[in-house]
Amino acid sequence: MSIPTKITISSLFHRSAAPFFNPTKIPTPPHRLFFSKNITKIISSNQPVLSSPPSSSSLQRVEELPPKLQEIVKLFQAVQEPKAKYEQLLFYGRNLNTLESKYKTTENKVQGCVSQVWVRAYFDEDKNVIFEADSDSMLTKGLAALLVQGLSGRPVEEIVRVSPDFAMLLGLQQSLTPSRNNGFLNMLKLMQKKALQLYVEAKRGASPSSDVSGIGDSTSGDGGVVDSAIGGNLNEDLGHTSVLGSRGRRIEEILNKELRPTAIHVEDISYQHAGHSGVVGSDGETHFNVEVISEEFQGKSLVKRHRMIYSLLQDELQSGLHALSIVAKTPSEAAAQ
Amino acid sequence: MMISMEAVVLKLPSSLRTIHPNPNRALRTVPFASSAAAPAPLSTDPHLGPGSLAHLTRPDFPILHQEVNGKRLVYLDNAATSQKPAAVVNALRNYYESYNSNVHRGIHYLSAKATDEYELARQKVANFINASDCREIVFTRNATEAINLVAYSWGLSNLKEGDEVILTIAEHHSAIVPWQFVAQKTGAVLKFVNLGEDEVPDVEKLREMISKQAKLVVVHHVSNVLASVLPIDQVVSWAHDVGAKVLVDACQSVPHMVVDVRSLDADFLVASSHKMCGPTGIGFLYGKSELLSSMPPFLGGGEMISNVFLDHSTYAEPPSKFEAGTPAIGEAIGLGAAIDYLSAIGMQKIHKYEVELANYLYDRLSSVPSVRVYGPKPSRSVTRAALCSFNVEGVHPTDIATFLDQQHAVAIRSGHHCAQPLHRYLGVNSSARASLYFYNTKEDVDDFIDALSDTINFFASFK
User: Fold this and answer.
1) Closest to B446 (Cβ–Cβ): which among A29, A35, A91?
2) ipTM above 0.85, yes or no
3) Active-site option among A12, A65, A69, A113
4) What residue ranges define each of the domains in chain A, with the CATH number in brackets?
5) Strand B67-68 to B71-72 pairing
6) Residues of chain A neighbouring B454 (CB-CB closer than 8 A)
7) Which of A182, A243, B41, B102 lies at a C-alpha separation of 20 to 30 Å from A219?
8) pLDDT per residue over B114-162, tens digit each?
């Protein structure tokens, strides 16, 4: 697998291992002078809840991240002190390739940031997406560098599936919760949107089709990165099973087993719902479109069909599955359409 | 005055965690009579030491006594919003617990009491700014809504094609955007005065621009970015000479100094409660009686009417004419309580303390290497408000504000502070801003400067 960025993860480990992984060698800040001796200087050793070792359900999510992003997340989790995390972040930012000014266009600008952030995306020979980014704020540049490092060189479907929840695992207190409209989320969304644009443009040849402009504004309220039609096409083209995570596969398995459908289509649309309350704290696979064509639905009302499917997926619904959008037809109904 | 201050101090509940316990607080009297002759250097702090106004009043503000990320909170974002003393919080709670009721329409006891208190609050606002009549005070949601009221009501019916509205480029967006709407609808023209030397709006240019074409001058009293103070009384006299009206944005002045609308002779003046120790959700428009009487309504609904027929209605007299619907009753009463609190201290006393603090902040901040502070240098003739917008060479303001918050619990603001045209003129995208109020101590400033130096060093090591 080609690693297009200059800095490989292993070299990053070497460079950063000494100061960051050995606690005794973490550079201590120059002694700060506080006014009153009455104040005991409380160095915050409280870890924010978010950076504590992830529960088993979120570990699953980490494993599903692109490998380099996993490394980055683990690296940040290993760094305890908040200040050291910032140093780590700034190191990333400093090592980011500079973006040529001709790429600092309005199209490439991340909306909704007080600082200026630009992101550029292009395909390499293997149709993996390469990202470049820049910012005038050093912290934002660090965050951009994380994303560039973590997502560059990966295929489109992997990039598109990344839910911004992983940012919580970094333990940076920069309020990286998806519910807040902030730079990090918008950066990720823009990168995902650009990855999709590359995919669509490649599919349809050199000139962008109207579908490209149909890709929604990355700052639109519902947080959707992509028109569901395009997402659907993407799934079909790439084979939907390759896009499903473990929950998606389980859903498909259960429905296949119990309903013996003539046709079934399970689609993970969790990324469209990134940011609303159902997603936070879950393992990232929260919203699905399910289309099932089966004889089992014969003679049953719509409500009954939906109930059947819900009861089959009880366990999933208890463990983080937030919503299902169901189309349940009999073979004759499907043929009649 | 002194007695009431001590009474306030003694009421401090022991459960409050004060980070700076000051056992002398209750006993020391603050020497506010200015000490004799020798002209002291600008950043001397006779009033900033222990026993200062801030030390005396801090216990009244429960919110200030907390830690953020393990450090004592240093709140320096007062230009964005101020903190509220317990008296205001209590007034609001007391309203809801004892006499909440809809105003003006009811006959019963609670309603009468609520109405009395609400109208009393209106009178307090009128007294606070020395308006001649409480009917010249229109309660709005905030200063922004008040400006929109003037724009939609007075502006649309008085401005026509070719008329000029004079503003400065340092105006807050709320003082610019509504007039853009009016200009689009009426064909009036907006003209902006740039900054002169000393980074203050060029007052001479402003005078020149107030020609016969000018019908309205919209101008801030104190700038929320530059900390400069404009000579409103002069601006008003120039405007009145040509028959133009003046709308004063007093959001950053009313909370910090004596503002007298009659001595300024302003036609309109706006301010927000939440910047002056009052609750959010309430502000006011001051307008001269004859102006308000001649203006058509802004919002329509209950309360602002006299008689309603199917095809037309007749309207109430000001201020009711401009107060449609159920108002923010509790909030207005809270604002009244805030005014009581501020008046008990005395706006002159507050202003005097803040001038000292402003000079101290400016001196300390401008001595930090690679820091560039915007606005005029304070001097004998130039007073600054107690706020500084600044940039650090090579470090983005957002980075500064984030690190200050995360590592030092110092709360400042970064961004354009609702003054994009001004930032564009200064050639920057954004700035950081530390803004103080009378409950900020000299120690707050010292902590801020120390934290800032640490922050700058941190980022410098990564360049």
Assistant:
1) A35
2) no
3) A113
4) 1-215 (3.90.1010.10), 244-337 (3.30.300.90)
5) antiparallel
6) 29-30, 32
7) A243
8) 999 999 999 999 999 999 999 999 999 999 999 999 999 999 999 999 9
